[in-house]
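Pair request: fold both.
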Amino acid sequence: MNAPAQDARVYDAIIIGGALSGAATAFLLLREHPKLRVLILEKSAAFTRRVGEATVEVSGYFLTRVLGLTQHLNEAHLVKQGMRFWFFNERTKSLADCSEIGGRYLSRVPAFQVDRAVLDEEVLRRACALGAELWRPASVGKVHLSASELQTVEVRRQERTDSVQARWVVDASGVAALLARQEGWRQPNTAHPTTAVWARWTGVKDLDGLELAEKFPHWAMACHGIRATATNHFTGDGWWAWCIPLKGGDVSVGVVFDQRRVQWPEGGWPGERLKNFLMQHPVAREILADAQWREGDVHWRKNLPYSSRTVAGDGFALVGDASGFLDPLYSPGMDWISFTVSSTVKLILSQQRGEDIAPLVAKHNRDFARSYERWFTAIYKDKYEYLGEYDLVRLAFLLDLGLYYFGVASQPFKRGKIALCESVFTSPFSGPFFHLMRTYNRRFAQIARLRREGARLQKQNANRRFMFKGYTFARASVLPIFGALAGWLRLEMTEGWRSWWQRPAAAHQPDALMVPVRRVTPQR
């Protein structure tokens, strides 16, 4: 074993990054093994807001049943009411004309809309209360990895450089992906070239408020639950936008687009360009008419998806966004945190018990590589080809959500937190579900391409409304899945057969496919 460097402090685990994934790792390690010496290195003096504000069922379970944050979430954040999708075409003149997919009633499994700055600070506070040592602000330089021995981390703080060592280093640095970049493991997902632009807004109209209810009474009565605290998705050809309310009145609104299909508008302030883009959608136009983005809180990130060829070794592990990112659609980021953190804690505790972790490390790397690849292929590959199509998204919504409920979300609720140590699509049982999901996703994308070639896109995007009763973990809830499979079959018989003998086409290039942008007066 390496001898500690002169003046170096030695810990059992050093965690790089004190936000949710890092703080949760420290919290769970110390709850299971209170005598561990854990150091958290956080670069910021205080957390600022970040994206990743919507949880879904697995991350909801992780936050409430594993981290014990239910009371905090109820007091400081908003209960999420599922997902809603809004579609438009040339015939949709107002919000009420747009086709809609969403729940008719309230959600039945806990999920939340969270202010990440508030949530991250709370989890970090709890980790420190259990005994974690926190250096903040502290900037990490080089990390020297040494299998089965002490890892050395160079830390800059208070205008000096310290050297600290630990048996384990956990990279929770987020999209900075410190270890993956340092070691050359980071690999971009070039099959999915997406960009996100987002901001927090004030003055957004309440979807459940009296103004819209009086203006569109029939539309308001179609939903018996709450629309505003859902994650509302505005969709178009090659893009979608999220609308997520936060406690206190601010609203997070952002656009994600496929660079092969959408040309982002040039010129003007970043917030102005974002608002100009959103104004083409009648729902966004209605609720953002008098809204204003917060100055200094407009952000841009290009080439979103990436992964790491290595996510663990004997002495290090990558958690959360430091190990990879898929896509914001369906909010998988916190699910990924739940799986990577739970598996990493299990790995470190196994080593602390004296177990041979070589086979565990090999399985950890194999499982997460397989999970990332299959998760992407089954759900996200070429999804943006048909995100603007009401009827295709309706079928995909029922199938994606239903299979997620029964194959993934139900597992921790039925089996406990041990299920979070089994990443998605890694078990033999999941194979048939992966192949089914990959197949219908690929077929829907191909059908959308045929429609685009025939100038038949978005024909069903006006005046259609699908109000779903919602999935539960009961067996009877499987029926909508069979209904959607039957709908897929009908689609193939009436339209899809035209492409049965065609090879799947690559996504089109953006030439002549620029999304029209409505110009508005610059707001400053």
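--- second member of the pair ---
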Amino acid sequence: MRKLVITEKANAARRISTILSDGKAKSRSTGGAGVISFSSGGDDYDVVSLRGHILELDYPEEFNDWTGSSPVELVYAPQVKTVRAKGTLDAIRDISKTADEVIIATDFDREGELIGLETVRAAGADMSKVRRAKFSALTRGEIQEAFSNLTEPDARLSDAAEARQIIDLTWGAVLTRSVSLSSGQVGNNFLSVGRVQSPTLKLLVDRHEEIENFKPVPFWKILGKFGLLAFKGEHNGNPFWEKDKADASLNICKNAKKGIVSSYEVSMKEEYKPPPFDTTAMQVEANRIGIPPAAAMSIAEDLYTAGYISYPRTENTEYPKSLSLKGVLEKLKDSAFREEAEEILAQEKILPSRGKRRTTDHPPIYPTSGATPEKLKGDKWKLYELIVRRFLATLAPNAEAEITKCIVNVNEELFTSSGYVLMRTGWKKYYSKYLSTSDTHMPKLNVGDELDIRSIVQEASQTRPPNRYNQGSLIQEMDRLNLGTKSTRHDIIGKLFSRNYVQGNQLIPTPVGIAMTKSLEIHGGGITEHEMTARLEDDMMKICLGDLTLKAVVGDSQKMLHGVAEKIEKDKSEIGNEIRSALREQQHIGVCPACGSTISVKRSKKGSFIGCDGYPNCTRAYPLPRGAKIETTEETCDMCGLPKLKLIRKGSPPQTVCIDPKCGTNTSKNDIGECPACGRRIMMMYSKNGKRFAGCSGWPECDRTYPLKMTGTITSADTKCGHCGSPVISLNGREECINIECPGKAPSPRKKIGLVKKE
């Protein structure tokens, strides 16, 4: 038989071909499309890889003119699919004509099912020949099992993905055009609005308002220290919300010399191991170790296609019985976790933990192959190690801790102390690097024991506002509210950044992000409320179950959107005024000293910059400072009269600088000394991601650069190094040669850091 296999990505095509052919596959190019061919079991295979969707959904060309029709008309406008990769589709069409079997081997989820089915349909394949290979890991066992037990494609799964595609395009186009046209922000400056994006932004705006409007409430605590170990105890009345009551309690205790143990209890607490990783939990934990959700998903995809982990897009938190946990542990013997794997294999029984979610499409995320830090570098290793350690933790015994509770009586005022000692490490042994708990020892005491009072003090404090979201906690909240899917949430957060609706690691909404949300709350017909989006998510899930059809869900969505669009159209004047006012606040930098026009942040195809609104009569333009959060000020430069900005960079104190990087006030601050290579000036500079370094002002003719420490204040010492001729800098008042490879420096026990390249 001749078989055509269609995969979603090139890496998957290569790995599947290698497994099925025992490494004997050969590649060729057909009409610009890559084809991998081999023979196996008497069958001839051709494997063709896609790059995601081969068809692109959009509106017909006549709807490209935003002013040519009302956004409301887009709600029921037709949508068309166009071929994105004609060469690939032609190759699939040609091969499928002579193939006895066409096998869809795309990712086994809604999106993968749609990609596969739309491709074979577009190629005109005989649907009676089309089969489906379902697998959750690109391992030899899983691939061989999947291709030995082919199934029928799932049209309902594909319909659910297509419904999402249609709904997202419709809502995004209608809402984005409505708001952008209302506020006059078109072209490159359009304002993005979406059915998931907008309620997600509202979460951040609501939290921001809660913090901004928070009024702290004072409270007081009475704290004591007792016995030889001076262990701490909290007054049972803590916190005191009235100062006079706190003072009264302190007065009762302050002259006491002894406290009496009135209660002393020791108990054992079992600490249960964590559930297996689903996508959300993996992203949250990755964010805690410095890998943002979008990066974590990208790395996880690479690890999956390379055969190191199982499919990373899953909502399952229970290992299926068909998964050989011992088999996975055996594979981990060939890794940096050999010792840990052998320990767990030596257990009398391996009883895995399980979470609350159970699905049948994919197992939780687990390692499928062993690896070492030499094989996987940087964040790939960090994420792989996290996934391995989580897997090990789910198979280890529960931990057990000794909990001590002691109550000390001081003149009838009671103080409670607690102790915690981990007695059996269990799963924590394998997951300890991601935990922050520590032991708190208590002395062995008996009821009636007298204890010396070391101190009793009163501490004043006040309530604090809630924490801002970070990317991990926001994804958790989106998951809880059913906003988006495991596959799209990190992309939604990325859009909030790219459209400048939020800034910084704490996801602080910008004035435009706030104005957009507040305006849509009033005029948006419910678009910012998560219930509307969650309802559509539930409906799309019902398509998978066969309870609803694609046509019914899309129709219901259109009715819902039509009401929203009409409301926005009716109130477009108010929306426009509110958003334009916020845009002026957000983009305003100051006044141009040359022509008196406003200087503001502009956006172009090459990125954002600072420019004069008097263009083309006034052509003043300056780059935005790199790698810094900027805040406007009311100050102007004493030397050139241009506005000044406040720059905030991690590890450095805030700076107020002129917007012109070539202004003498800036060059004097950043001048470090003479370049030993060409005689020009070595300047302190910043890369795109905010890392500072020193480089020659004569670049690119002179490429002399030096790395700089990210923290501390650096100034020029106005002298040269006697050993290498490089500038000498003052770092927090201590002078040193800027050249880390200077022959005059003592050899460092650490690995040398290479010179940075200028970006």
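Observation on the second member. Residues 389 and 431 are 6 Å apart (CA to CA).
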